[in-house]
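Hi U.,

Before I forget, here's the chain from the pilot set. I'm dumping it here mostly so it's searchable later in email.
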Amino acid sequence: MFKSGLLDGKDEIREFLNGAGDKKLKKYLEAGMPVLIEEGRWLAHKDNIEDFFRKYTRKRVTNIPE
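Structure:
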């Protein structure tokens, strides 16, 4: 698993995202996380997901929790 950088299946993608649940996975997909879903098969490349998070986490924090 992960040896080629290709994540094959929703479960491998979730595992790469530290066990993200459906709600969190949907949030990332809606924010533009690159995943190919074709005929029910989920594929992603870990480098693309890492690039996405480099950009995603550059946002300025405006509502800092107590």
